[in-house]
Specification:
Order of helices and strands: EHEHEHEHEEHEHHEEH
Low-confidence stretches: none
Number of domains: 1
CATH topology: Spore Coat Polysaccharide Biosynthesis Protein SpsA, Chain A
Number of strands: 9
Number of helices: 8
Largest sheet: 7 strands, mixed
CATH class: Alpha Beta
Radius of gyration: 17 Å
CATH architecture: Alpha-Beta Complex
Oligomer: single chain
Shape: globular
Strand order of the largest sheet: 3-2-1-4-7-5-8
């Protein structure tokens, strides 16, 4: 069970997630209720044209405004970094989960076991893995992770994943230090955490590809990732 006073704020950046959002919220709410954690889910939408905001507003009515918080990210340049900064302004928990999947209670329990500053879900350790990807997507992910391990030696097995728990004050400090945008942001967070001496725990996860919608990963994101990786290698 959670310690008295602990609360988890989940930051969920969204863009065209109308079909996925109700399922993710339901899974999160069930997981938190079963594990005894107080929680809130902050949906940060990038002006989705598919009606994601309307769905989020309905979820607020169903679960209550103390559990679901809906907001728009009005930043001119939307990215994971700006979404998390925006969401942090409204987070009331002492732990923050950033994610685009479910399984939140596993990282919470792992944090309690080791009193870690950060707990990261990993697809590349233990019984972790990926399901639903074609060979090309798997090769891109494996190749990206291999390059990060060789060039950055981060002390963590999965730098490109987006399922993590942070102490709130640790996440705030890391956001002050990070300059990357997009997919490189997740990688830089771990690298900066290592530099600052924060403790990192890992939990093997089975990542399942999305049921609805399309992946946001494209050629431009891959080029941006490689540029960001080389920049981190040269500056850290």
């Amino acid at each position: 069970m959670a310690a008295a006073g602990d609360k988890v704020s989940v930051l969920l950046p969204t863009y065209n997630e109308r079909e996925n959002l109700p399922l993710v919220v339901w899974l999160l709410a069930r997981s938190f209720q079963e594990s005894g954690y107080d929680f809130e889910i902050i949906v940060i939408d990038d002006g989705s044209p598919d009606g994601t905001q309307e769905v989020a507003e309905q979820l607020v009515k169903i679960y209550g405004p103390d559990k679901i918080v809906m907001m728009e990210n009005n930043s001119v340049l939307f990215s994971l970094g700006t979404a998390y900064i925006h969401g942090m302004k409204h987070a009331t928990g002492n732990f923050i989960v950033i994610m685009d999947a479910d399984l939140s209670h596993h990282v919470c329990l792992k944090q309690k076991e080791g009193n870690f500053d950060i707990v990261s879900g990993t697809r590349y350790k233990g019984n972790g893995g990926v399901h639903g990807w074609d060979l090309k997507r798997k090769l891109i992910s494996r190749g990206a992770n291999f390059l990060t391990q060789v060039l950055l030696r981060p002390g963590a097995s999965d730098l490109t994943g987006s399922f993590r728990l942070y102490r709130k004050e640790v996440l705030q400090k890391l956001m002050e230090k990070c300059v990357s945008k997009g997919y490189v942001f997740q990688m830089e967070m771990i690298v900066r955490a290592r530099q600052l001496g924060y403790t990192i725990g890992e939990v093997p996860i089975s990542f399942v590809d999305r049921v609805y919608g399309e992946s946001k990963l494209g050629g431009n994101e891959i080029v941006s990732f490689l540029k960001g990786l080389l920049t981190l290698f040269a500056t850290t």
